[in-house]
């Protein structure tokens, strides 16, 4: 699916975080996957963007796991980017 | 073009710790206050602060504010203003207890009092022995503080403009600050905000360095706004570095790695710390290690295709020690350096993490500039707080845990001062007729360009220049070359071109505007550092190794116009106690 530009830019901007680690991780993830994210994945990602930075980092570093199956799948994509 | 206008009592630029603390003071006094933030406030960079808040509560051992004051002044290498430092250390206990009442989840002692951690440089009885002074919430002190303050602001009905970027201050014909121009990212709409006062709380600009622990949002927007409005920047040569950040990323590798036996190697595989510190070697103090690493790099013994880092070797410790004693280090190295430290060394480089200088203020947060012979003449209607401000409590080097304290004390002080000031200044001053024109012309340049420099490439060159020429190891040659190079970068910044001309969520345009703020801070840093011919605190020059109180016990002031320097005296006179006279700094 081709994301429209505004939606894409909004995701890019909201992936700017308070923690440098998250900036680096999400920048890498988006450069690889942004153009190919499914509608479901975008919804899940929007949910991740609402997380406090420290919790997001714990998940991205594999210290914690998300609950939902879709979340786990996308988190693995973020971890492996 | 006529711009829409909104009216508030006070505008706060920045939704981090200091901005939220000031906003709270105003909102609880029922003033109309608006906070502008590029990102959601709880995702400000304050979230990265782990260490704690320094305050002499004396919950662990005897402690008092005068000892805290001494530690702060000594840490500052005597460049800190002693009136402001006394003010901060006296207020520390009050702001911590307030935060406790706001619901901050501090770590606690069994008796219910706030637990306090030990921290480097905190001492009892003027350097006699260590004292536990840092109040923390696990390793999430900044995070907990931001959330606590944000909730409290929502309760006080503070108005937030989230994903708005402030562009420029508006000053009237008498020089008073009467509002600002800001842009909503979502729509690209530019709007005028009229106010009785503006508070700049935009944090540090560590992103001027190639290797920085700062998040991407830390682009010095408030300092760019101030400098463009003719306000000087103070003590910009002083930046705090951590010796071991992952090269190319900036994520820190704890000093515990060297404590456990990790060693630093140059391109020849030499354990170079043996030359710089024959006794302590890799365990020498932070500044000694940082300087040695940078000197190795500057003298051509760096590693990698650009010879721009050294190596931290720990594979000889074995997987057991690495996994058991250094938890987390392996995952950080794999994630951010793409090496497994059990097998390979980690590429590391001295990494910038805190800015001591900033917009000059007094201890009420009022911005002060030299005028008619008075070095500290107040700019009516303008305040600055937090890392973007220079009060100056950190002087040439910041004492650990004083950054969060600075946010709380001066955020609150500025809020309190404004509440009083608004009583005697109840009227809005008129906006000048051309308000907004300057910002619109900056945007128009970007909107009309058909060719020019890439924002990304110029930004890379900016960061490389600052890292290479205003790093930890400084010489006249490095600095004067750096001054020339950064001037060239500044010319390129004026010619940046953004292909995307859309208004809606145009991140490329936002990054071009951020670059115009970064270049201000970068020029201020290089010019101030080149001019200061001494070593003091974080500014260490190989060609002027000693502190020179006779000629340099003074604050630097850099003006964007003409790229010129001025100086003003350090305030050595505290509010109520005797002055701490400059002494040689030994730990």
List its traits.
heterodimer, A: 81 residues, mainly alpha, DNA polymerase, domain 1, 5 helices, 68% helix, globular, B: 587 residues, alpha/beta, six-stranded mixed sheet, 16 helices, 34% helix
Report on the structure:
- The complex is a heterodimer of chains A (about 80) and B (about 575).
- Chain A contains 5 helices and no strands.
- With about 80 residues, chain A is mostly helical.
- Chain A has one domain: Orthogonal Bundle (DNA polymerase, domain 1), CATH 1.10.150.250.
- In chain A, α2 crosses α5.
- The longest helix of chain A has 14 residues.
- Chain A is globular and about 35 Å long.
- Chain A starts with a helix and ends with a helix.
- With about 575 residues, chain B is of the alpha/beta class.
- In chain B, β8 and β9 form a beta hairpin.
- In chain B, α1 runs parallel beside α11 and α5 crosses α15.
- Chain B is globular, with a radius of gyration of 23 Å.
- Chains A and B meet through α1 and α2 of A and α4 and α10 of B.
Q: How would you summarize the topology of this molecule?
A:
The complex is a heterodimer of chains A (81) and B (587).
Chain A: H1 5-14, H2 20-33, H3 39-49, H4 53-60, H5 69-80
Helix pairs in contact in A: 2-5
Chain B: E1 5-7, E2 10-13, H1 17-28, E3 33-37, E4 53-54, H2 65-75, H3 82-101, E5 116-124, E6 129-135, H4 141-155, E7 159-162, E8 164-171, E9 177-184, E10 190-194, E11 197-200, H5 221-228, E12 233-234, E13 239-246, H6 256-259, E14 263-265, H7 273-276, H8 286-298, E15 310-313, H9 318-325, H10 329-337, E16 346-355, E17 359-360, E18 366-371, E19 374-384, E20 389-390, H11 402-424, H12 437-448, H13 455-469, H14 476-493, H15 507-531, H16 549-552, E21 554-559, E22 564-569
Helix pairs in contact in B: 1-4, 1-11, 2-3, 3-11, 5-15, 13-14, 13-15, 14-15
């Amino acid at each position: 699916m081709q994301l429209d530009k505004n939606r894409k830019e909004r995701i890019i901007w909201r992936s700017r975080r308070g923690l440098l680690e998250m900036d680096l991780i999400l920048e890498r993830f988006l450069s690889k996957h942004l153009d190919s994210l499914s509608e479901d994945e975008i919804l899940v990602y929007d949910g991740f963007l609402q997380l406090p930075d420290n919790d997001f980092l714990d998940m991205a570093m594999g210290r914690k796991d998300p609950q939902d199956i879709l979340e786990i799948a996308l988190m693995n994509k973020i971890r492996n980017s | 073009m006529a711009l829409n206008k909104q009216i508030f009592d006070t505008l706060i630029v920045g939704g981090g710790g200091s901005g939220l603390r000031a906003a709270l003071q105003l909102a609880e006094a029922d003033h109309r206050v608006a906070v502008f933030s590029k990102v959601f406030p709880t995702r400000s960079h304050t979230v990265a602060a782990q260490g704690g808040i320094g305050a002499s509560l004396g919950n662990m051992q005897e402690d008092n504010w005068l000892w805290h004051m001494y530690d702060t002044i000594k840490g500052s290498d005597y460049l800190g203003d002693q009136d402001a430092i006394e003010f901060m250390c006296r207020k520390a206990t009050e702001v911590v207890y307030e935060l406790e009442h706001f619901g901050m989840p501090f770590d606690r002692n069994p008796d219910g009092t706030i637990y306090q951690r030990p921290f480097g440089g905190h001492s009892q009885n003027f350097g006699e022995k260590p004292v536990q002074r840092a109040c923390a919430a696990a390793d999430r002190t900044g995070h907990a503080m931001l959330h606590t303050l944000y909730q409290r602001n929502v309760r006080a009905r503070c108005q937030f403009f989230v994903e708005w970027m402030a562009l420029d201050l508006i000053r009237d014909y008498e020089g008073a600050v009467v509002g600002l121009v800001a842009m909503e990212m979502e729509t690209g709409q530019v709007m005028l905000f009229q106010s009785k006062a503006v508070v700049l709380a935009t944090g540090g600009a560590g992103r001027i360095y190639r290797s920085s622990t700062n998040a991407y949002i830390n682009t010095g927007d408030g300092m760019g706004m101030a400098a463009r409005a003719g306000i000087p920047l103070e003590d910009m040569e002083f930046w705090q570095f951590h010796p071991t950040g992952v090269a190319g990323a900036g994520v820190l590798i704890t000093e515990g790695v060297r404590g456990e036996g990790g060693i630093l190697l140059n391109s020849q595989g030499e354990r170079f710390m043996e030359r710089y510190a024959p006794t302590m070697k890799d365990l020498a103090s932070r500044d000694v290690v940082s300087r040695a690493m940078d000197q190795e790099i500057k003298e051509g013994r760096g590693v990698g295709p650009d010879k721009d880092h050294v190596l931290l070797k720990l594979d000889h410790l074995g997987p057991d020690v690495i996994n058991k004693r250094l938890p987390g280090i392996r995952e950080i190295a794999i994630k951010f350096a793409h090496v497994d430290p059990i097998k390979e060394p980690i590429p590391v480089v001295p990494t910038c993490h805190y800015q001591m200088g900033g917009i000059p203020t007094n201890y009420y947060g009022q911005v002060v500039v030299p005028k008619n012979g008075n070095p500290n003449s107040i700019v009516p209607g303008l305040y600055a707080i937090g890392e973007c401000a220079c009060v100056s409590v950190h002087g040439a080097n910041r004492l650990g845990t004083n950054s969060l304290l600075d946010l709380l004390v001066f955020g609150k002080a500025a809020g309190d001062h404004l509440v009083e000031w608004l009583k005697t200044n109840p009227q809005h001053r008129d906006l000048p007729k051309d308000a907004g024109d300057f910002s619109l012309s900056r945007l128009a340049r970007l909107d009309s360009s058909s060719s020019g420099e890439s924002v990304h490439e110029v930004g890379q060159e900016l960061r490389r220049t600052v890292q290479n020429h205003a790093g930890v190891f400084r010489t006249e040659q490095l600095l004067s070359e750096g001054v020339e190079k950064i001037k060239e970068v500044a010319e390129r910044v004026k010619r940046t071109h953004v292909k995307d001309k859309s208004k809606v969520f145009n991140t490329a345009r936002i990054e071009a505007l951020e670059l115009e703020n970064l270049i201000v801070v970068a020029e201020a840093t290089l010019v101030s550092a080149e001019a200061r011919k001494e070593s003091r605190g974080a500014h260490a020059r190989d060609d002027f190794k000693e502190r020179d109180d006779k000629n340099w016990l003074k604050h630097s002031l850099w003006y964007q116009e003409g790229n010129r320097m001025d100086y003003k005296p350090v305030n050595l006179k505290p509010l109520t106690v005797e002055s701490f006279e400059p002494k040689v700094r030994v730990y």
